[in-house]
Structures are given as structure tokens and as C-alpha cells.
Write the C-alpha cells for this entry.
Amino acid sequence: MIITIPLYVILFIYLGYLVVVGVFSFINFTHLFHSGSLTLVSFFVTLLMVALAIITLYFTFIFLNEVDWRQTLTLWNNEWISNTLNSSNF
Amino acid sequence: MILDSVIKIKSYEKMVYTLRRHGVTFLPYVLAFVAMLLAPIAVYWLFVSAFTGIMQNSITIPVIVMFASAYYLSIFLFFYSFFAEFYLDSWIITNDRLVDVRQISLFARTVAEVDLYQIQDVSSEIKGVFPTLFNYGNVYLQTAGPIPKFIISNVHRPDKLRQAIIELSSEDKKFHAGN
């Protein structure tokens, strides 16, 4: 038995996770803003976090730019077990 | 400052202090953040030397890149959340009252306040190597109000703050005695 999924499924999961990270970051920012805690220190920490996130997303985009998302990713293959059991080490 | 969501400043009230925990107490989070930033680099070198074939596979590379990207975004989010919790924990002292704003987690906050004239006893404490070196510690307030004990924890110059609270409290007591 072989279980495979197209690579774009992983991309959709990743994009969904980006939305979650974005929402939680926004909640943190609104907490800081509405409680009057958006001072110079908290502003620079926010700026640093935004800059780091942008750099991460930029390099992710660079690395994933040329990927063929229709390729299939094998999640499970029975041969992995049978090959292991039939190997000379056992 | 947009403080209306936390406290309503009265017409005769003026803010005297806005206190937060000393920045040194956030240092362990910064060190953990830096360690977590650097950890994937070490893991990457181990991975490359152990599984050379996997790193040349056209399918596993995008999966690893997305996983690494999600990991970094997660630690940025966790660090920002810890910072927000640290920074939103504050004590606001006005000429009338002391407000303790405590951010317990992202979706939990408690706000407690005591009128300065209700303060009965104030004591300060600096305990430990780092608190002594960086001059921060706790200020304990004994009150006659519904919340008998207030702790202002890990604030800079607790001795000076204790004196300031005693002065503000005695002024407020005079004001309330006059009315």
C-alpha cells in the first residue's frame, strides 16, 4: 500500500498556518496598542518581529519559487517495512 | 496613551508612575529566543552530513523549507507573545489610586486597584544576585481595602518607589480627612 499526496497540500497547510500566525500577531499588537503600552520599546520590538517575519517569508518565497507543486509526496509505503525486515542487518 | 480600555482616569486624577518589571527579568526569554534561532543551523549541518540524498531530493527540499519557515515564524510569534505579556504587566500609580494590570496570557487579563488612602503598610525587598546588581525587587503593600495585599514585583529601584508610595498615600489621606 502506498499513500501519496500532492505537494500543494503541504503548501495549503503552510498558508493556513501563516494566517494563524498573522491573526495571533495582530492580537498581540492590538493588546499593546489598546492598553497604551505602545511605547518606543514595544514599537521597536514589533518592528523587529515584523522585519524578521518579512525576511523569513522572502527567503521562503525565493526557495520555493521554482518548485513543481504537482509532484507527489509519499507519506507511507509498505515497501519501507518489508525492505527493512528483509535487509541483511536482521 | 489609549488607556480607556483598561482604566478610566478621573477628572482630578493625574498619572504619577507607570511601572513595569525590570528589563533584566526578560533576559532569559531573549536568550532562549536566540538559542532557538540558532538551533536549526546546527540541525541543518547534522542533517546534511547524515542524509545527503534527502537534501538533493526535489520533493523533500520544499517540505523542509516550509517546515523551517513555519518554525521561525512560530518562534517569532512566541517571542512577541511573551514580550506582550511581559510588557502589559504594569502598575499605574496616580495621585488617587494604584492600578495593577496583569496580563496572564494572550486572552486573560486581571485589573485590580486600591485607593492610596487605604494603604496601611509599604515594604520593599531586593533579594538575590541579579536584583542586587541591577537594583530591582518587590514592593509589598498592605491595604485596608478588599484586596489586603498588593505586590509590585521586579520593579526598578523598589526603595525609592516605596518612599514615593508612602508620600502619595499620606497626601491622599490628608485629602480624604479634609473631605
